[in-house]
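Posting for a labmate who doesn't have an account.
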Amino acid sequence: MSFDQKILVIRFSSIGDIVLATSPLKTIRRAYPDAQITFLTLDTFAPLLEYHPDIDALVSISKRMSLIELWGFADHIRRKQYRNIFDLHNSIRSNLVTLRSSSPVYQLKKPRWNRFLLFYFHHNEFGSDFSTLKMYHEHLGSIWNENDDLPATLLKVSNYEQKMARDMLLDKNIFDEFIAVVPGAAWTQKQWPAEKYIETLNQLGFPQTMSSPNANRRASLTVFRELIIAFKNVGQNVVEFSRIFLGTVLKKLLSHNGSAIMGCRLQTNGR
């Protein structure tokens, strides 16, 4: 493989799915070890992928781009002449930005019907062996086969981000283990009520907890307030951290929402 072979990987959102996308990203890197891999995402989530060792160029666009702007950006993608495009999102946005390209596009096929039944009717058609990581890999073409391994997810935390985190924890007088809670999710059906967070934290012994509400979602603010009340009732405090901090370091350390627990390997040797 030569470095002039250009690969485009697309995943616009959200935090959890971008973390999961780093597994097929590793598979793509293994298949094209010397290629220039560009990762396209939304600017809101771009910091999550900074310093990633399998990404040569990180490109972000605004969620607020108009259809006309997206059409113009699609021409930019066309002119790049990527060897392959791996669309790990399969959204209206990703279909539009790849529409004008003549490059081969390997596109994720989402289980939309099964998800619809589960979300709205609580009817589960997913098999007991369903794996999101495997689903991502099944649509990468010939570079992955059924019996191949599924690489671990990976995020890179820079030395600066580590220092920023340590300084913030010290400023909040947090010296021991802690739990970070970020109520809220894009789908209402994915949102946990406060009692679910409280039940889980109670099982963990109510360690020191940091939390930040999603100010854009009323339900998130409600859960956040209920968490504060519940913690005060057991003699614990909730330390509120800023959304700015969440946007840099904690996005790399937390899953998308409290309704899912995700394992992710973190690299900490960096700038």
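Reply:
Got it, the structure tokens are right above this. The first strand starts at residue 6 and ends at 10.
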